[in-house]
What does this fold into?
Amino acid sequence: MLGLIGKGLVIGILVSAPLGPAGMLCIQRTLNRGRWYGFFTGIGVMFSDVIYAALTCLGMGFMVGFIEANELLLEIIGSIVLGLFGYYTCCSNPVKDLRKRVAGKISYTYGCFTGFLLTFSNVLVVVLYIGLFARFGFVATEYSAWMLLAGIICIGAGAAIWWLGVTYVISRMKKWFNIRHIRILNRIVGAVIILLAIIGIVSLIF
It folds into this structure.
């Protein structure tokens, strides 16, 4: 159970770490409106991530027998998917798609809702979840439905911890933070994901 909780927290952080359009919106609101506006936008992103995690887990749950019969192959494929996603993260530049938002007052609820919608529109996150679940062995016969539910909740907790930390750091470094340098952070995150993929493949081979 503790292992599943740990996997859930790590997966939640890894899914949230690459800063796409939703991440940029969180950072922009943190800089322009304050830490908690950015954080609640991140919470909206987290709700979307949890829904996609549950859907992916449910779909893979119907194929547990196939997954266990092809565990090694699926873990290798999962590591390759992670590597490709890390490469994409390194090369992506979410700043170029950033648009100025209206400067009027918004509520935390609105921030959360817009963060949710922006993330929920990206169904490709399911591919990332499949790779992560396969790589970390998140779906297995020894895990009951309640254990998997706890794991999915931990994915949400990992995402919330990420956004809490990111918005805190950015709010503290507001005077020195240049949003156009966000590509550096994306490259670091992408490199970490690629490294995890390489370690996974090497450990499976040897």
Notes: Residues 2-205 form one domain.
